[in-house]
């Protein structure tokens, strides 16, 4: 057979995910999202997300089990291991999935593997594009994370080479969307609204000045950009002028994607990587994909991007990471393993 | 593992509304119980507590007949750990789950104890923010009112049971009243307590504000200078 049969549970933010894989083969990937409950708050409310996780946990587990039974005649009693997100993420949300995973593993008498959510975003690409050349660079962008990683082995060796020093890129999208009177989540909304001129307004590119590059070559900052957009919109309103939403959205998006892609390509060159993997919800952004594709091609770098349903948070990414960890022969987690809301990406498995 | 062959149905009880509390009962008899009072380690301590409890009693997971879980009221994050665990355990082991109010279990414990109440009483638990979760019971342990959350000052003048009694200076703990939810009592009496449904007894809405007007960055800038 081809690899261990692993069930993965994800509950770090606002998606309850249960996935089942056999090695690099996807058998089930069921997700229940609470995103609709957060719309009126303009961002994820931890307590609302945690309540939704508890409600969705068993139904999502059942759907995944049914899917794997139908697709591959797999029964849960046959799985080799249970893997689960231990962090990073929202503490109240993480503990629901972790508690459920512990109970499942113990009730089935199978080993438990508590793993890193960010590493899951990298591992999920194995389901679509097979083994990852080493070293690879991964750019993870979502409402919760903005990181640039060096991946030597997805199960044992990941190093953060850069991260946001303030807001996550997706958070900046949410805030600018609200500023423009658009809905939540901001990523897809701004992407759709960005039909104007991306060069209409010269918004700042965070941490790209020469003095910033010395200390923060691969880091990101979106807080200044967000404030610049707010100031531009307010000045416009104060002058009694209309706000050209399409131009503002396009110019903001250009500033974000310009920095993300430039630093990601720079990291590939610096680290000698010929492969750039992108993941996280913002990886589905059309401008980011286009800009990355263009710059990667110029630099002779192969771009790897899982399909959108695997880029956003899901259980399959945790399952396939679990399968890799099992495959490397790492020891299972103890049943007293804790959730860690700020788990560093260098800790792939606990 | 040496396995018992019990004639009485084996019930595992789980409650994480305050401490991590587990218990095991065989029919009418409490077999074992365990409490872990570190209120910040629910997800760490619960499964090890269950494993230790069953191991100590020589009970295999496959011989469990039912699970009882306390649905609160209780502080939210810890509470969910017990509910998620109990749901997945019962579902995976294919045994029934009974979801009960934790205050009801404290009431049952007192009513069936050596020194039962002689009239109506309250069960109270710490709800933080200077409030208590509480419910009112008659002398047979049947819930008359609640569960509710409120300041301890407005409670009816009745004897108390439960972990919130220290927060109620105008009240006294009833003679013989249990001060805490006991895992053994929950396992022993849980099967006969009312089902409270699928929704945890949160009794409070999530803290979340719907954003109103945005703050002016221009005003904020000048204001700080
Ligand atoms: Zn994520």
From TrEMBL, chain A:
Reactions catalysed: L-threonylcarbamoyladenylate + adenosine(37) in tRNA = N(6)-L-threonylcarbamoyladenosine(37) in tRNA + AMP + H(+)
An MF annotation (GO) of this entry: iron ion binding
PROSITE patterns hit by this protein: GLYCOPROTEASE
Domain Gcp-like: 25-319
Enzyme Commission number(s): 2.3.1.234
Compartments, record wording: Cytoplasm
Keywords carried by this UniProt record: Acyltransferase, Cytoplasm, Iron, Metal-binding, Transferase, tRNA processing
Cofactor(s) needed: Fe(2+)
Record-listed substrate binding positions: 140-144, 174, 187, 191, 285
One GO term (biological process): tRNA threonylcarbamoyladenosine modification
Gene3D superfamilies: 3.30.420.40
GO CC annotations, alphabetized: cytoplasm
Pfam families the UniProt entry points to: TsaD (PF00814)
The organism's place on the tree of life at top rank: Bacteria
Protein residues bound to Fe cation: 117, 121, 313
PANTHER family: TRNA N6-ADENOSINE THREONYLCARBAMOYLTRANSFERASE, TRNA N6-ADENOSINE THREONYLCARBAMOYLTRANSFERASE, MITOCHONDRIAL
Family from the record: Belongs to the KAE1 / TsaD family.
Record-given protein name: tRNA N6-adenosine threonylcarbamoyltransferase
Taxonomic source organism: Microlunatus kandeliicorticis
Gene from which the chain derives: tsaD
Automatic annotation (TrEMBL), chain B:
Domain Gcp-like: 39-144
Swiss-Prot/TrEMBL GO biological process terms: tRNA threonylcarbamoyladenosine modification
UniProt cross-references to Pfam families, sorted A to Z: TsaD
Domain of life: Bacteria
Protein name: tRNA threonylcarbamoyl adenosine modification protein YeaZ
Source organism: Microlunatus kandeliicorticis
Taxonomic lineage of the native organism: Bacteria, Bacillati, Actinomycetota, Actinomycetes, Propionibacteriales
